[in-house]
Amino acid sequence: MSLQTTSLQSMGRAAKDAAYALATAPTAQKNHALAVIADELEANAAAILAANAKDIDAGREAGLPDAMLDRLLLNESRLAGIAADVRNVISLSDPVGSEMDCKVLENGMTLSRRREPIGVIGVIYEARPNVTIDIASLCLKTGNASILRGGRETFHSNVELVKVIQTALEKANLPASSVQYIEKPDRELVGELLRLDDYVDMIIPRGGAGLHKMCKENSTIPVIIGGFGISHMYVDKTADLDRALDLIINAKAQRPSACNALDTLLVNKDIAAALFEKLTPLLNDNKLKVVAEKAALPLLNGVADLQEAGDGDFDTEWLSYTLGVALVADVHGALAHMREHNASHSDAILTNDLIATEAFINGAGSAAVYVNASTRFTDGAQFGLGAEVAVSTQKLHARGPMGLEELTTYKWVGKADYLSRP
Fold first, then answer.
1. In whole angstroms, how far apart are CA 56 and each of 49, 151, 159, 195, 350?
2. What gap in Å lies between CA 138 and CA 143, rounded to an integer?
3. Does 3.40.605.10 match the CATH number of domain 3-224+402-415?
4. pLDDT per residue over 37-64, tens digit each?
5. Strands 232-235 and 202-206
6. Predicted TM-score (pTM) above 0.85
């Protein structure tokens, strides 16, 4: 066994012990720890931002695209927002200990399902340092220990953030090992973490399709698949075109590096010419590159940066100022396109037709479906869940933004008196 593996085994054992301490900690103590974390983030802002500046400088030298640098960046405003998110988690109800489906059996036994922590959660994620705080705060609130492995691009930021978290935990009389970070960048350690099933109860990857595929294929631990998925917006022939313009631009350009940003615009062919006449100036104003199927090209000839779609373009999560465009005959054509091109995250229909609305809602296989709204709403804070640990696009256990309840499991609890009969 290598020294690296031994180190991970030690982290796993420490995390499992910490998980027991967290599972038995009262809500007041967990909330106190969160309050101290928020205070420590503010008190140590200079050190955190200095560490983040090192990551930004290294990212620029490595030639990271602007969209990736934006995901990586922390500044005073964003750090203040992260601290506010932690305090918001304090205000949320603690799901641990709540009971569901309580009933009395014929023999007199009272039977219920009680929520409890999952245990130890391993999270592998890429260039989003705020994720470190989101994961830690949600796991702490739900009594879960966590082992984190961030991307190379955020190394200095994450090390500093975890140092702040662990200091806060000790001040709140909780184990510092409740939140641990794998500091060595070796990719081999990711594989070791995925096989640490003696200690880790669930793996959550946050990143691109390659990361999710690797985790799914190599983990001996249950994996929550999420975050990746092509987001679509279908403009139906009954849509209000003027209102559609704002929704399209918001979904695509408000923050194109986000996983819920629009990737492919599907337009009913009957209204395509009218929509594109209104939309083209906005595409140019926002410096959007349009990758369109051949049939749509003549209708988009006023777009400054336009090219014909090639193989794989409609299967690409752009995470940039690039928008795919395709024409469809109706809502069923839109759904057929979405089934073929990995619609599993966030998808929207713009329409005034109730039948088309219901067809889209029922036919879309996405974790979140919107009617006359932007795909950018898929977010734990927007949903009132507080921060999120991930956006799940699988179909078991949790779907969409994973908040507090999604980080719990349950146990059956039966209570009997001496008069109960088996």
1. 10, 13, 15, 32, 38
2. 9
3. yes
4. 999 999 999 999 999 999 999 999 999 8
5. unpaired
6. no
